Amino acid sequence: MSDPVPSIGTSDSERDRVAGLLQEYFAQGRLDHEEFTERLGRAYKSKTAEELARVTSDLPERDPVDVGRAPRAEPGVVVHPLRLRDPALMVPWWLYGGVNILCFSIWLILYFTTDFTYPWFLWVLGPWGVLMVAVTFGVLAAQRDPHVEEQGEGR
Fold first, then answer.
1. Are residues 50 and 97 in the same domain?
2. Which of 16, 50, 100, 124 could bridge across to 6 with cysteines, CB 3.0–4.6 Å?
């Protein structure tokens, strides 16, 4: 933890914050029951910031598991919803179109070169298409924000 100024007294909220950290470390298995109880007692008895810092000085500030995770969006940050032309929606639609063009082409070759006329490509086109439409509308509806739409109308 960062080095606090030793002469600064600690508040109840600071002691509670350190107690919360100790509970997390205990839950993660970084502290056994004895050590947890001893450190918790020291945290609540601490009078200065230096005493409070010594309680967690040998423990990591951040959990190593959280280091690789993406940071969460801050409350004031505006995340724009997906639009129909967004690559996150366009790539699956292009993949859907490409696979169905390939299936239709194979069927067309078979149709003209053999006596096979059953339109089997519709079994790929139909169910996958219904799923694609449902997912696309679901994503767009879930991200619908009236404030963002009002801003987009002036474009």
1. no
2. 50
